[in-house]
Amino acid sequence: MSRGVTVLGSLNLDLILNVLHLPRAGETMHSLSLERQPGGKGANQAAACAALGRPPRMIGAVGADDAGAFMRSTLLERGVDVSAVRVLDGVATGQAYIHVAADGENTITLHGGANQQLGEPELNALRVALGGANVLLLQLEIPLRVNVQAAELARAAGVTVILDPAPAVENLPADLLASVDILTPNEHEAQTLTGEADAQAAARKLLALGVQNVILKRGSRGALLLNAQGAKEFQAPAVKVISTVGAGDTFNGALAAALASGEALARATDFAVKAASLRVSRPPGYGHLPTGADTLP
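Below the sequence we write its predicted structure tokens.
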């Protein structure tokens, strides 16, 4: 089977406001600058995967507007196959409003737009794409029912399913968890998913619910891989943080790229940690994504 990655997920136009500190409740503040960048967890992960030498097929939807045209052309320029990105009339392309503080921390407000219209056309496109894929990347910025069906289709086809459970929701469906090979929450998301106060306890609970592998993304502390064989830590190299925007998406794109190249899960996780560390040491934008020349498995 041809080795490759398929990404089913969101495409957003990101409006990035650089601020001295994150806004507090009731506060009005001036931004230092405004940037317009391509985004959405699905698109970000596809772009990261492409930058690392594994151009994926992107499945999703945008509106018939300038933002949608911008998203499609930007991904195409990066080598991503956008033939399965549907253009919808009368619906806005998804958008994200991102505040980035001077210390690199950020908050994000999403408008789903066309991302919330995904359905049977995208599942049909996925059925075709799975014939040439060995990794499927999913996130939670599209309708949950689509993720459930997509994971089941991929599992039946013998394709590895990676789910980035963000934005986190409580009590993911059991049938979705049972079809996921690798779940990649950060510590806060793991706690939200399970109600456990301790992130490692949350990860073990997710394993008990049927997930084969849980990778806890821990920011500057790297990552922790948990499965039936035990737990393994992966340390992140020390870097100067410029922006944390897109770090988790780079992690997932790198993980998928390494697995699609035939790497074992532990080696792929180490590669993803290094790629995400490089990402936070650079400004936002696809032009600053780590490449294979930066981080070789």
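The two ends are 22 Å apart (CA to CA).
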